[in-house]
Each structure stands twice: as structure tokens, then as C-alpha cells.
Amino acid sequence: MSSSFAERKSVILDLLMEESSVNVSELAKRLNVTVVTARADLAALEEEGLLVRTHGGAVPARHTKIMERMRAEQGVKRAIAKVAAAKVEDGDTIIISAGTTTALIAKYLLGKRGVHIVTNNTLVLTYARTNPQLRVTLVGGEFRPEEEGVVGPLALKAIDQFYVSKAFIGIDGASVKQGFTAHFVESADLVRKMAEQADQVIAITDSSKFGKPGFARILPFDGVDVLVTDNKLTKEFEIEMTSAGVRIVKS
Q: Do 99 and 156 belong to one domain?
């Protein structure tokens, strides 16, 4: 087994998804490393919010679907989140919707002062709790583990109480016909409400979501002011977004 942490990380997460837990001693043998190294690997993955250490081992920190999404396109997501976070100014009140990429915005707000985050994204807490300069309001409602988000009538009612400078919204899909979409109606309703409560609406997503519409419509393209994405967005969608008055920012 290679001593590369990236390769060991992949093996550890695969084991967690298959077996729901890992034992440090057995893991060390599987990876052909010392117990000390295996513990250090688990500590590093816990820091990333991917697992929770237990006595003698670890268990997954999230629902299987969320774990898969957190592992996918990590470098691309981090780059997009950094660009989005740079748009937050000291003293801003912002909304962050559920999503693995949107959650990373909180991670990259280090150094910003007086920022107040309103969110239904429970992953935000993983990163925000280490930054004392952030104030977080987590809305109530029904917790959906496969999204790490809170939805439902209570969440909608809570969001209606806030008015913010920027809303950072995640999407599950996008198409020319449907615009931005989500997999669930409840999620689409909440993200649409978030957009209504903001001066500026910023959609953040990797380009793989385009051309793959979800079940429920969130907003037409012209309902968003800025799109932060990677450099693989197709020319077709660039033209559609620009025609709709959306400013495209690439990471």
C-alpha cells in the first residue's frame, strides 16, 4: 500500500461506506502503516468533517450520499468556494443554502469580521465553529440527512424573517428549459425563498450540473445575478447565462 495520504484517505472512506466503521489496529494492517499513522489519518479526516473518531476507531460523520458528494471533485469545489467567499465583505449578512460546495464558503471566511450567516446547511457548522468572527443562525425545520440540510414550512417561515446582502445558493442541476433545479420540491422552495430575501443572488456550482436538470425548478437563469463555477462550462450555457444577464465568474 502506498504511503500517500491521498490514497490512504480513499481506502479509509471506501471502508467506512462499506462497513460503517473502522478499527485503528485493523486499519493499520490494511494500509501497511503504523497505528500512529492510522490514528493521524483518522484525525485528519475528522478535521475535514468526513468521519467521527471513536474509542479505537471511527464511524462516518455523514449520510452515504453526502459522503459521496463531499469526496467528488474536491479540488474544483474548494476553488469555487474560495472565489465565492472572496465576495463576502466585513459586516455582511449572508444566506448560504444546503450543499457541499456552499458549505465550504464558511471555511474560507477566515479573516472576515462581523459576518452573519443565515443557513439551513448543517455542514456550515463544521467550518464556522472554528472561526469566532462568524455569527451563524441555523434555521429550524425538518432535517434531511442525505442533504445535510433543514427544509419544510418552519424553515420557510424562518427565512422570511431575514433580509441579507447576498444569498449563496447551491443547485442540483440546470438546463436551458428549466433553469436552475433541485432534486426535491422542499429544497427548491427554500432556495427560492432565500433568493427573494437577498440584494444579490450568487449561484455556486461546478459545471457538471449543467445539462442535468433536477426534479424541481428553483429559478430561471435571470433570477440569479452571478454564477461562480469552474472553467469547463460549455459555450452553450455561457451564452444562455450571459443572455439572461448573469455575470459568470470562473474559479
A: yes
Q: What angle do CA 149, 56, 18 make, to 5 degrees?
A: 50
Q: How many domains does the chain have?
A: 2
CA distance 146 to 33: 33
| 23, 39, 61 - which closes a domain | 61
Which amino acid appears at position 145 of this protein?
P
Give the Cα separation of 182 and 194 in Å (integer): 14
Query: How many residues would you count in the chain?
Result: 251
Q: Could you tell me the residue range of the domain that residue 22 belongs to?
A: 5-61
Note down pLDDT in tens along the chain; length 251 residues: 546 888 898 888 888 877 778 999 999 999 999 999 999 999 998 887 778 899 899 987 766 666 666 666 778 999 999 999 999 999 999 999 999 899 999 999 999 999 999 999 998 988 888 888 899 999 999 998 888 899 999 999 999 999 999 999 999 999 999 999 999 999 999 999 999 999 999 999 999 999 998 899 999 999 999 999 999 999 999 999 999 999 999 99
CATH number at residue 27: 1.10.10.10
Read off the DSSP letter of residue 169.
E
95 with 189, same domain: the answer is yes
DSSP string, 228-242: EE-TT--HHHHHHHH
Determine the distance from the C-alpha atom of residue 104 to the mean position of all C-alpha atoms in its chain, rounded to a whole number.
6
